[in-house]
Amino acid sequence: MISVKHLKKSFGDNEVLKDISIDVNPQEVVVVIGPSGSGKSTFIRCLNMLESINGGHVVIDGKDLTDKKTNINEIRTNVGMVFQHFNLFPHKTILDNITLAPINVRGMNKKEAEEKAMVLLAKVGLAEKASAYPDSLSGGQKQRVAIARALAMEPKVMLFDEPTSALDPEMVGEVLEVMKQLAKDGMTMIVVTHEMGFAREVGDRVVFMDNGYIVEENEPKALFDDPKHERTKAFLSKVL
Amino acid sequence: MDFHFEIVQDYMPFFLKGMALTVGVSLAGVLIGLLLGLLIALGKMSSNQWVRLPFNIYINVFRGTPLLVQLLIIHFGIVPLFMAQSNPVVSLVIGLSLNSAAYIAEIFRAGIQSIDKGQMEAARSLGMTRVQAMKLVILPQAVKRVIPPLGNEFIVLLKESSLGSVLAAPELMYWGQAAAGQYIRVWEPYLTVALIYLVLTLSLTYLMNYIERRMKTDDLR
Ligand SMILES: Nc1ncnc2c1ncn2[C@@H]1O[C@H](COP(=O)(O)OP(=O)(O)OP(=O)(O)O)[C@@H](O)[C@H]1O
Ligand SMILES: [Mg+2]
User: Fold this and answer.
1) Which of A39, A180, A218, A240 has its CA 20 to 30 A from that of A232?
2) Chain B contacts of A85, Cβ < 8 Å?
């Protein structure tokens, strides 16, 4: 599904991703953990070219993002992204937030897009908020709408960059619940998170990043209970 | 001081005609300036520095030189290259448009850049092109933020249009000077003209405040 080979990314002199290689299989849930500044966000943002790539290759669904001939907008319709700060469109209702891209990018007609949006809203438990504006929603509700918005494009992969980090603790659960359901439905997911419980329960694989490298990756149980590298041990001892 | 109201009375039809022209050229200037300004703002935000360069130069030239100089060059230098009979009203509209475009471009740029960059990222991550993201997500939000400074720009332009008198464009100030010349009087014509400008700008200020209040209540929804 996703194949990353020797991915490199710098901001000026600051080499943030040094040599990242990883393959993600269809329906797999990969959880990325690591200390602040290790390059997790940068990595996940390279997967839909929100950051330009300086070296190596990222192949998604058979298409190489670094190939100049690749239509990046088309790739992005297949790669959903959920941000830490939701980034809902404040001037649009919840329903319009969800239908905006299907109508304007996919060319779907309004009625069909709205019907689909209502199904998605029901799925994330927010059908009654369809005509509300984002400002009137709680953080947890906003993030569930953001997930529905991304799903409306029927992506093949979903990327999550710390989807619960900006939430009050009592709202983390409702968002993780939606993500769990998504994983159960067979969505391919890459999730950057500090929620180790989620990683353990839902992740098929956990990747530990530090200083621009993938230091260690394994099944959740193996990585959490029996980390091989000193840096992984040190990190886990701080967060667990 | 004896104030000769009959001078004001005599000239009132001309003052009113001048006022109409003042409002007209300012409105035309700001409307054309809006269109040009948006294009210049988008050009100046290009990621390519060579594309940015001409827009930067434009903004710097028009903001960095006096409008009076611009008007004189346009009226006596540039317009005659294209029109056999140069018309001061046309020159004035061109000058006001080009000048306000530079200021309006900066207003738009500031408005667009004040929108959280997460908005553009979210739009792009959904597969929208840059143009779609601008049109559907960024500009609708930026519009609300640029309306107050655009109102200010309109007020400034309305006052600056008085420089048209130098080109003999028959706007309000032109008739003020004409009356002053004919009667060799200072107070009557200039005070009247000043008062008319004041009424215009204050009306605009109230209008802007009204629009801003309306938008605020829209926000509360
Ligand atoms: N747009 C940018 N311009 C310059 N430097 C950046 C930019 N984005 C990230 N960096 C730098 O890249 C490094 C990695 O940042 P990144 O956001 O990927 O880390 P992270 O692992 O997601 O951290 P966190 O857990 O705090 O979110 C940091 O040193 C950061 O300062
Ligand atoms: Mg991050």
Assistant:
1) A180
2) 118
